[in-house]
Amino acid sequence: xxxxxxxxxxxxxxxxxxxxxxxxxxxxxxxxxxxxxxxxxxxxxxxxxxxxxxxxxxxxxxxxxxxxxxxxxxxxxxxxxxxxxxxxxxxxxxxxxxxxxxxxxxxxxxxxxxxxxxxxxxxxxxxxxxxxxxxxxxxxxxxxxxxxxxxxxxxxxxxxxxxxxxxxxxxxxxxxxxxxxxxxxxxxxxxxxxxxxxxxxxxxxxxxxxxxxxxxxxxxxxxxxxxxxxxxxxxxxxxxxxxxxxxxxxxxxxxxxxxxxxxxxxxxxxxxxxxxxxxxxxxxxxxxxxxxxxxxxxxxxxxxxxxxxxxxxxxxxxxxxxxxxxxxxxxxxxxxxxxxxxxxxxxxxxxxxxxxxxxxxxxxxxxxxxxxxxxxxxxxxxxxxxxxxxxxxxxxxxxxxxxxxxxxxxxxxxxxxxxxxx
Length: 422
Prior knowledge:
Order of helices and strands: HHHHHHHHHEHEEHEE
Catalytic activity: ATP + protein L-histidine = ADP + protein N-phospho-L-histidine
Shape: rod-shaped
Mean pLDDT: 76
Largest sheet: 5 strands, mixed
Organism: Actinoallomurus spadix
Enzyme class: transferase
Protein name: histidine kinase
GO molecular function: kinase activity
Helix content: 55-70%
């Protein structure tokens, strides 16, 4: 009666009577007995022997005429039935039918027959249990007819037998239902734990994707600066020493900063990070002048127009998205239009939209800096996640324009104007 052998309850019912009764044992039925199994089997053996002896004593007392089978065959059959209980785990259905059948010739085997019926009720489908119980009821009717009790009516003997069989089956079904409930709760707990691990894994992957976007935005900008200054040194070897030293200083500072950013990203991506380290401060819209100065020192011509109203009230996440948008647009302009004038316009008010526009004339020559082609896609995704949108492409005026609209929440939103895009 172990939980392991209880897995047989999931076997579907068989279409015919004989296979339902003689269902093949599960491989789990052959699992070696544990200490608990041995204790249960010994208790069942002792209980069957005791109940069989009690039945022998009851049927021998207080009757004017014997109403029991011959004693010697009765005792032998009862002893063999009790010994057969040691195989009830492997062949519960066959043992239940056999012990129920021989009960017509022995009252001492009644205890073993009840335990075998109980085992079938615990480990087999209800259809099989009903068929084995029917065998016990029929045998009880035959026994009552062959060895009638003169002190009670025939129907009373049938009723007592039916009550005993029903009680044994009900008890076995209760134990089976309880085990199924425990298994169900255990599976539900395992499933909940697996789902929790899946959510943690998904959150980790999303965080890594966010870090990858940040790494692309930061490193692409700094490496493009390195490429521009290195290209200037390559094509102007006769430049004054002061300019060469200045360009070398910019290259050194950009390379140092790029390595620092890369080291921080790789540290976050490590699997064996024991403790969560706080993120360093992220750039905001207030850092735009510094970003534009870096681009100007790299040789770009950048025109910056700040049309913000109450720029200090911009939320941190919104300012970071705006900063990354300008950074990626300047990087693209440096790659594809290195000598063109780039215009950066940032405007908006709280309660409407924060608008970012970066445009430059289309040119036929590029810097030769390779690009992944995913920068603008990442910006569009960032804008979409923020509830805004982003457009990019050539204009009829012969310029390439990147324009983003990001929602700027505020208490001054006019009624009916929420969500309006220019």
